[in-house]
Amino acid sequence: MTVLRPRPAPVRPASRASSSLTSTQRVLGRDWRLAAVFIGPTLILIAALILFPIVSSIVTSTTERHGAESVFVGLDNYTALVDDPVFHKGVLNSFVFTAYAEIFKVTLGLIAALMLHHMRRGKAIVAGVILLPWVVPTVVTAFTWRSLFDPIFGSVNVLLTDSGIGPVLEAIGLVDSWPAGWLSDPELAMPAVILVNVWKGIPFFAVTFLAGLKAIDSGLHEAAMVDGATPWQRFVHVTLPGLRHVMIVTVLLSSIWTFNNFDLIWLMTQGGPGDATAPYVMVAYSKAIQQLQLGAGAAVTLVMVPIVGILVLILVRMMRRSDLPGTGDLGRSRLTPAQRKAMPWVIVAVATAVLAWVSPHIIWKAALVLGVCVLLAAAVGRIVSTLAARGNRAASRLVNGVGSGVALVALLAFVLAPLYWVTVTAFKSDDQIVMRTNDLWPTPWSTEQFTDLFTGRAFGTWYINTILVSVASTVIALVCAALAGYALARLKFRGSESFTVTILLTYVMPGALLFIPLYQLMSGIRLNDSLWALVITYPTFTLPFATWLLVGYFKSIPADLEEAALVDGCTRFGAFVRIVLPLAKPGLLAVALFTLTNAWNEFLFAFVFITRNDYMTLPVGMQSMIVGDVVPQGQLAAASLLISIPVVLMYAFGQRFLTEGLTAGAVKG
C-alpha cells in the first residue's frame, strides 16, 4: 500500500528546504541578510530625509517663535488657520489650479497619444517634439511664458491682435478688455498659469497614454470592427476601458504634483496679482521662510496631508492591484453594473458643481474652450463614420487624414511656439527687444546676450554648481535604487511588501511637506548655503521614484536567467551584477534621465537652502537676475537656451530607452 502513495515524493524537497532554514530565516525570511545589505542605504536615506523630517514637522507645528526661542503652543497654529483668509484662498487656488489643469491635460494628452499611436511615419520625431515641454526646465517654461504674456515686450497680444482673434475674445467675454493683461489681471492670471501648466504637462500624459495604448490587445479592436463597431464605439468600449488603469494612475500622480506646485507659479506671478494665484504651498513658504514662523508654516502643510493622503491611498491601491493576478475587478465587485456606469458621471457632476462655486469666472470659459475642441473632434469622427458606413472609404480616409493633420499641426504649434520665441529672443540685441523690431526673426542675429550673460553675471558658476549637484545626487539615487529595487523584486524577506508601499508613499510625498523640516535640519548641521545641502536632500524626490520604477522593471526580467547563473555557481550579488544589471539597462537609463532632469530642474529646495550667489544653481540664479520690475528679457532667453540644451540632448539620445523603461517599469509595475 505504501508504494501507491504518489504525494510524499514532491513534498520531501519542500520539507528538506524548510529544514535547511535557520530559525532566524523562518522569522525574517530566507534572504534577510542580503536584503538588509541591499536595502540598507535606501532605508537610511528615506528614514533620515523623509520620515524623520515629517515627524520633526509635526513637532514644529506645535510651536511658535518668540524672539530667539520656540514656545510650545499645542494646536494653536491649526486653530488659527480656521479664520485665516489667506490660507483659505491658498487652498481654493490650489484646488482650482489642479482641477482645470488635469481636465485639459487628460483631454489633450489623450488626443496626442491617439494621434501618435495611429501614425505610420515620423512617430519618433513627433513624439520627441511633443516631449520637449516636459524636458525643458520649469524655470525656462516660466520665464518663456512670462515673456510671451508681457504686455509690452511679449508677442501673445500682438499675434492675437494682428490675427483678429483678440477682439473676438473680448467680444465673447473671454477677456474683459483688449489688449489683455494676462498676468496682471486677477481674472486672467489663474487661467494663464493653468495654460502654462497644461503646456508642460501634456507630454507626461501623452507618453504614459501611448504606453497604455501599446498594451491594448489589437485583437479586441479587430473583433469590434468585425462586429460592425464604429470608430467612436471602438474608442468608448475598447480603448477607454483598456486605458482605465493607466489613466487613473497618471491623473492621481499628476494631481498630487500639481496640487503641491510652487516653482511655476512663483516664477510667473509670485502668487499675484494680490493673492489671485497663490497656492497653499506659497502660503506655507511665506509664513515659514519670509515671516520666520516655522510652526505656522508647518501647520499649513500638515493640515493638507489628509487631502493628499486620500489621493495617495487610492494610488497605492491601484498600483498594488496591477501586481495581483485576477484582481482587475478588485474593488468594483461591491457595485452593480448600473452603479459602475453612473459613477463617472456622478464624479463629474460633483466636481463641476464645486468648480462652479469656487471659480464662477473661469468655469464657463474653460467649458467653452473644451466644448469647442470636443465638438470639432466629434464632428470629424461622425463624418468619418458616416462615410465609412456608406462604403465611401476613400472620402472617409481623406477626411480622417485632414482632421488628424489639422489637429497635429495645432498641437505642434502650441508646443513649439514658446520654444521658438525663446530661441529667437536669445539672438536679439537689446535694441531689437526694446524697439520690437522683427519680433519673429532677429535682424541681424546677435550673440550679445550670451556675452553679457557670462561677463556680467556668475552664470558659469551656476552652471558648474548645477552639474555637480545633479550628477552627484543622480549617482546616489541610481546606486541605492538599483540595490533596493532588486531586493524588493527578487529577494524573500519579511516586510518587503510594507517597504514597497513605503517607497510609493514617499515617492508621492509632496516637497511642500518636507522643505520646512529639511530647512531646519540643514540649519542644525550648518549645511545651509552649501552644495552639500542639495546633494543630500535631492534624493528625497529622486530616490523613491527611481526605486519604484526599477522594482517594476526587475520584475519584468525573467527569473530563469538569474537562477541558471546561481546553478552555475554564481553568487546572488554576482548574478545581480552580471545578469540583471545588463538586462535592466533601459530601466537604469530611464531612471538616470528622470533623476538627472529632476535634479537639474529643481527650484524649491535650492531657493530655500541657498542664498549666496556663489552656491546658486541655474534655476535660482536665473530667478535672481530679475530685480524689481527690471527683467533682462534677452539674457533670460539666452540662459534658458543654455540650461535646456543638455537635457534636450539627453532625452533625444535616450528617448527609446525612456519609452521602454516606462513601459516595463511604470505601466507593468
List the helices and strands and how they pair.
Layout: H1 8-20, H2 23-28, H3 32-60, E1 63-66, E2 69-72, H4 76-82, H5 85-118, H6 123-130, H7 132-135, H8 138-149, H9 156-162, H10 165-171, H11 186-215, H12 218-226, H13 231-259, H14 263-268, H15 280-290, H16 294-303, H17 305-323, H18 337-358, H19 360-389, H20 393-426, H21 430-435, H22 448-456, H23 459-490, H24 496-507, H25 515-524, H26 531-537, H27 539-556, H28 559-567, H29 572-583, H30 585-601, H31 604-609, H32 618-624, H33 633-667
Antiparallel strand pairs: 1-2
Helix pairs in contact: 3-16, 3-23, 3-25, 3-27, 5-11, 5-13, 5-15, 8-20, 8-33, 11-13, 11-33, 12-13, 13-17, 15-16, 18-19, 19-20, 20-33, 22-33, 23-26, 23-27, 23-30, 24-27, 27-30, 27-33, 28-29, 30-33
Strand order of the largest sheet: 1-2
What amount of the residues lies in strands? under 5%
Which class do the helix and strand fractions yield? mainly alpha
Q: Mean pLDDT, as a whole number?
A: 81
How many strand units?
2
Textual characterization of the structure:
This protein has a two-stranded antiparallel ribbon. The protein has helices at 8-20, 23-28, 32-60, 76-82, 85-118, 123-130, 132-135, 138-149, 156-162, 165-171, 186-215, 218-226, 231-259, 263-268, 280-290, 294-303, 305-323, 337-358, 360-389, 393-426, 430-435, 448-456, 459-490, 496-507, 515-524, 531-537, 539-556, 559-567, 572-583, 585-601, 604-609, 618-624, 633-667; strands at 63-66, 69-72. The longest helix is centred in the C-terminal third of the chain and has 35 residues, at 633-667. It has 33 helices and 2 strands. A hairpin with a 2-residue loop joins strand 1 and strand 2. The protein has 669 residues and is mainly α.
